[in-house]
Structures are given as structure tokens and as C-alpha cells.
Design brief:
Helices cover 33% and strands 26% of the residues. By secondary structure, it is α/β, with parallel strands linked by helices. The strands form three sheets. Strands 3, 4, 5, 8, 9, 10, 11 and 12 form an eight-stranded mixed sheet that branches. The chain has a two-stranded antiparallel sheet with strand order 1-2. Helix 5 (70-82) links the parallel strand 3 and strand 4. The chain is globular, with a radius of gyration of 17 Å.
Length: 241
């Protein structure tokens, strides 16, 4: 990390940065968590592929592991650029309670808050709760497993089926810090209604990866891209054919 980038991350709350998307829409980076999130989503080519893969104006996008909400904002930019009358709905799920005000601020600034439903909770089993280990020095390191500088917080699981109901999902993004294996295992009914899936796949034994691929294939989602390595994880696209 360069000295200038390090200093900006530290001073972002006082010396913020703002990108104007249009006369009304903007993205502002007001803390080090938003700077890191913006870097991962907007400054890597993987998620921009949404523009290529979405072939018709979407109606529903589900953002699993919304973090700062930047993926939904990037996707909305792609949709509005490609389809003049695009007006999709967004469901954003984020377990970290400290990021909920940040997401609300970002959705409001990007002018998609009226079309967005934000829920705070974990994804995996459809009921119960689990410990989320929150790293206040780096929210990108927050996850289901204890790590240095993290503190446990009991978070309820969300039943995504109850939120989506009978709607089809045009695009789903999964970035839930290793929880993707349990989520897919318990939510094949939701994935059966998903047309396009962008997923961050975390390190695990090969047989666990193979099981995940087979489960997705069983509901009609096939891998359509080679894995892209980023930050030690694999970024993969799946599509219903």
C-alpha cells in the first residue's frame, strides 16, 4: 500500500472523495471501509461484466453480502447505460450492523433507495442465528470465523425465500466470506429462480468446491467463466441456460 493511499484511507472521514454519476446521483467515499469496498468492486474488471451478461432489462437483483452497497450501485450504472427504461428492484443483505447506515447513505446518494430493500442478517440456514466475527479495523475481514482483532456478535439468519416470494431473480451476487457453501446447501429453491449468479468462492477442500458446483448444476446454473483470482479468492459467473 502506497503512503498516499494509506493516508487517504486514514483521512477519508475528513477529506472525502465524491464521484458524480449524473446531476443527481453520486458516490462518496467517507471512510476507509468505503474506500476498500470501492476499490474491490469498481476498480476490478470482474463485476463490470454485468454489462455484458445481462441481456434484457432486469426486474430483481439480490445482493448477498452488500458490504457498502457498491455492487448494487455498479449494477444500476450498467443497467441504465444499456437499457434506457431500466428500473429494477434491489434486495440487499448485509450481516454487519455497523455497515447498515453506510449502505443507506450510499443508496440514497445513488438515487436507488426507493427501489431497494435492505435487510440486516446472515445467509445460510433459513432460521436460527450464528456468531459473526466483526473486525472493526477491516470490515472486509469480517466473517463467520474468528480472526485477529475480531469480536463476536450474534446475528440472526434471514429466510431469503420469504423476501423474494414467487419472483424470479435476474441477477444475484454472493460475497459472504465463506458462507456461500451453507447458503447454497440450504437455498436451492432460491437459486432455482436465479438467472445469473456472480459469486466469490472462498478457499476450501476441492471436494467441497465440487459439491457446490454440482448443487448449482442441479438447479440449472452452469459455470460460464473461468475463475478470476482476486484477493486470494475465486470470482466465478454462473448462468441458467
Amino acid at each position: 500500500m502506497s503512503t498516499s493511499f494509506f493516508l487517504y484511507r486514514r483521512l477519508a472521514r475528513w477529506i472525502s472523495c465524491e464521484f458524480n454519476l449524473s446531476n443527481k446521483q453520486k458516490i462518496s467515499l467517507k471512510n476507509k471501509y468505503e474506500v476498500a469496498s470501492f476499490k474491490d468492486v469498481f476498480c476490478h474488471p470482474f463485476y463490470w461484466q454485468v454489462f455484458q451478461w445481462i441481456e434484457q432489462p432486469p426486474k430483481l437483483i439480490v445482493d448477498c453480502g452488500a458490504h457498502c452497497g457498491h455492487f448494487s450501485i455498479l449494477a444500476d450504472i450498467c443497467f441504465k447505460s444499456k437499457f434506457a427504461n431500466s428500473d429494477p428492484n434491489y434486495i440487499l443483505i448485509e450481516p454487519n450492523p455497523y455497515l447498515i447506515p453506510v449502505i443507506n447513505k450510499n443508496l440514497n446518494e445513488a438515487c436507488i433507495n426507493d427501489n431497494a430493500l435492505l435487510k440486516q442478517g446472515l445467509l445460510g440456514p433459513k432460521s436460527g442465528s450464528d456468531k459473526l466475527y466483526i473486525n472493526h479495523k477491516n470490515y472486509l475481514a469480517t466473517g463467520l470465523y474468528s480472526n485477529k482483532n475480531s469480536k463476536p456478535c450474534e446475528i440472526p439468519y434471514i429466510n431469503l425465500s420469504e423476501i423474494v416470494q414467487d419472483r424470479n431473480i435476474d441477477l444475484m451476487k454472493i460475497d459472504i466470506e465463506g458462507g456461500e457453501f451453507e447458503f447454497i446447501r440450504f437455498n436451492l429453491d432460491i437459486l432455482q429462480k436465479t438467472k445469473l449468479l456472480f459469486m466469490e468462492l472462498h478457499e476450501a477442500p476441492q471436494d467441497k468446491h465440487l459439491e457446490l458446483f454440482q448443487q448449482l448444476q442441479s438447479v440449472g446454473l452452469n459455470r460460464v467463466s473461468q475463475p478470476v483470482e482476486a484477493n486470494g479468492q475465486q470470482l466465478i459467473i454462473f448462468q441458467r441456460r
